[in-house]
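Issue 218. Parser rejects a valid record. Input:
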Amino acid sequence: MKFAELARAFAGLEASGRSRRGTALVTELFGALAPLELEPAVNLLQGQLGPAFRALEFGVGERLLHGVLARAYGVAETEVARRYRALGDLGLVAQALARGRRASLGVRETFDALLAVAHTSGPGAQERKRAGLVALLERAGREEARYLVRVVQGRLRLGVGEATILEAAAAGALGDRGKKDVLERAYNVHPDLGALVRLAYERGERAIAKVGPELGVPVRPALAQRLASAEAIIRRLGPVQVEPKYDGFRLQLHRDGARVWAFSRRLEDVSDMFPDLAQGLRRQLRSRRAIIEGEAVVLDPKTGRFLPFQVTITRKRKHGIAQAAARHPLRLFAFDLLYADGRDFLAVPERTRHERLAALLRVAPDDPVAVTEVVTASRPAELDAYFRAMIARGLEGIVAKRPDAPYRAGARGYDWVKLKRAYQSKLRDTVDVVLIGYLKGRGKRAALGVGSLLAAVYDPKGERFRTVAKIGSGPSEPEWKALRALLDRDRRDSRPPRVDSLIEPDVWVEPRYVVEVLADEITRSPLHTCGKSGKEPGYALRFPRLLDGIREDRGPEDATTEREVIELYRLQRSASA
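Output the parser choked on:
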């Protein structure tokens, strides 16, 4: 397939928005691609060169792209800048400047050339990246140029999410859109959409059903639901295993002999940032090939107290790692075993997984990797006593787990339930929301350029972000300015395709950044779309306050879901009653 045909498919998807037609267009596109083109096409459809754990980035800033367009189309950089100010999209600038160019690029050829740009490093890398992109644009037609530039910027903006791709592949490769769950199970265990779609088309459903954990490929983490009290947990789950809930950085560690990978909750490879944990795992783990999961937290060396998440996240950096490790020593509290010595443990009951994990880890008092303590509780009073003890230790709360439950990769269910400390408010828990825009405000806020943030929660079924709050308090003036500068990098001229909002902010923002919010309570609201159905009002956070900054360990699809907000509203009402 020519890249021009792929670009036309992208244009059709962009025009279709979030309609069911979008899934049909993706299915049609997959059917037209050669087997070797499927993987690169799926990656390009997501605006990337590979899955999150491969961390392939172009390293090309906006200023360099101005120079690329100027050289490719024989115009001055000032002309590129002028057009960009008018259009607000470098992809549209490239499309306008490429007028009359004849397209001659193939899909695989284009992908390989982009891959070469991303891999370019060393002395003179910026000039070689510039030359590689210029060579591509010189052979690209108008629509091709538009999407090439957007892919390089990481702003493809097609509104096509993972669910759409899985459903389209189920229809095209497995012959039934309803078999999306077969692909989704495999994707949760091996989250590389490009490779998975290619496998489905080449080898079918039987091969997809055999997909299991692989060292060096992160399993999508299982997630916990919420309940309001110890009584509600025991009533729902029965006797439980209970663990402390740490306010830390969730990590999945893979070991293959001497090599150790560390993956974040967002599936990013953060191995270089945690050398102390890797070294500890090599020494402590009896199995040479294993996947374990845990929560990394910083301990105050003087007091032994746990420090908050914002201190822990400072370890997630590229420079000064040794100094950060000395200043803020980490401890990983391992709580799950997913794979060991050729055996897949995902379907093994929780109780057995934890016992096997404890048997595989040698733990001395000062070791960087420990096994999370576990107690059992069959009565609400036992569970509540342990919860209060964890709060007294400065922890967030507890996680109760069903002893006979398997590990449900990528799912949020009632096999795991968290209970967090009660705040001085009617709402007993914080909410993770996605920022989708901002309003400029009045008075002092007008001078800052931002008065409030429009925030949404995620609806996995509809694959969309639905508004739940306008946040106007929490940050200091410098923090408001920093937030605005960050959001302006992803501003849009119109509502993003996957956003469902009745409120029109002054500036729309691509759903990318997650923040943690505390509110007084959840109320019904005709202005917000979270939970809104027909003439029924939606749900909103009352008096929301921003806590700390951007949650770098969460992606937009990791935000609190619409269903969770509705459940919190019900819990709130039952608690009041």
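Fixed in the parser; the record now loads. The chain has a mean pLDDT of 89.
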